[in-house]
Amino acid sequence: MERFWKTDSADTPMVLVHYGKLIANLDDMAEFAEASRVKLRPHAKTHKTAEITQLQRERGAIGITVAKIGEAEEMAIRGCANILIAYPIIGHSKLKRLLALAEQIQVSTIIDSLEGAQALSSFFASQNRRIDVYVKVDSGLQRCGKKPGQEAADFTRRIADLPGIRLIGLLTHAGHAYGASEPHLLEKIARDEARSLLDTAALLNQAGLQVSEISVGSTPTVKISGSVPGVTEIRPGNYVFYDMTQVRLGVVPMERCALRILTQVVSRPAPDRIVTDAGAKTLALDRGAHGVEGVSGYGLIVDYPAAEIERLSEEHGVVKVSPADPIQVGDLLEIIPNHACPVVNLADELIVVDDRGLRDRWQVIARGKVK
Ligand SMILES: Cc1ncc(COP(=O)(O)O)c(C=O)c1O
What we know:
This protein has about 375 residues and is an alpha/beta fold. The protein folds into two domains: about 20-240, Alanine racemase (TIM Barrel), CATH 3.20.20.10; about 250-365, D-serine dehydratase-like domain (Lyase, Ornithine Decarboxylase, Chain A, domain 1), CATH 2.40.37.20. About 30% of the residues lie in helices and about 25% in strands. The strands form two sheets. Strands 1, 10, 11, 12, 13, 14, 15, 16 and 17 form a nine-stranded mixed beta sheet that branches. Strands 2-9-8-7-6-5-4-3 form an eight-stranded parallel beta sheet. Strand 7 (about 165-170), helix 7 (about 185-205) and strand 8 (about 215) form a beta-alpha-beta unit. It is elongated and about 70 Å long. It starts with 13 loop residues before the first strand and ends in an 8-residue tail after the last strand. The mean pLDDT is about 95. Pyridoxal-5'-phosphate binds next to loops. GO terms for molecular function: alanine racemase activity. This is Alanine racemase. It is an enzyme of class 5 (isomerase).
């Protein structure tokens, strides 16, 4: 595979993004959303940049999804006017920040507990405002969310008339798809992702309650769950870059991966061991989202796919190589990470390249915005 970085020196480590591959990934998902007639609301935790948010909006995204209020605040300052915070908002300080955002932009969030719903309701009602909410349904990840069907429907009916909130839909995220060991399991998880919401919506319907949004999304499942009739919104995140986890799952071929880490060999202390300057503070210790089956090391070295990034300390990547590999101290290597999202969160900027060389530098404005 061709290298992204065309010269033989660089101030490493760097996070490189290939512009052409990024645009192809963005276009592909936008075309899917249009053809499937679903709204595209990408999760911005993957890129955390104003520039990619803008590129997504230019391709028809109705807004973005984020996990944290801090990410939403950064994106709102840069002109993003429609943001779903797909995370339970709990506690007075968070409610105050949510209100401040709701006074500037169109903002929505999720609920999955009575305590959370009541606190949100009384806070917004006390300000004579209403906030749009989705009920979070657990389609199998076993993280947040009500069980699909009766439990989720009963909860939704209970909170639907609370003052200060406006129920707009049901939402789920099939993150457990990352643990799928076979393509047919992925397909089943994706179908269940949509079903979990549609079955719940059908029960609500029988009880006379309609919800307008049925929101699904994880990159491995989205093209299946997003084409089930009745689904109205998709929230893929990782698709902008893809990574070795997506390759392992068969979602895309390696050539579609748009993000690489450029690192330099700083030592070859033994014939079968090199050390690079991309350690845990660059590559992250996360070996892959919600499942590491089939993933080896911390990513793939493009020129030496058989080499294994065995260990990371904070600033050292320890790689097992073949004694025959002609790697020297000072060489530049490109790594496709197992999980692109935490890599971006550790970087100050994304170095944007195209086939002619350096094109731009994009600041990771929502880096570390975990509050
Ligand atoms: C609630 C929610 N929606 C959407 C996504 C996007 O998932 P992916 O990065 O697999 O596309 C995530 C990922 O963490 C999520 O937590």
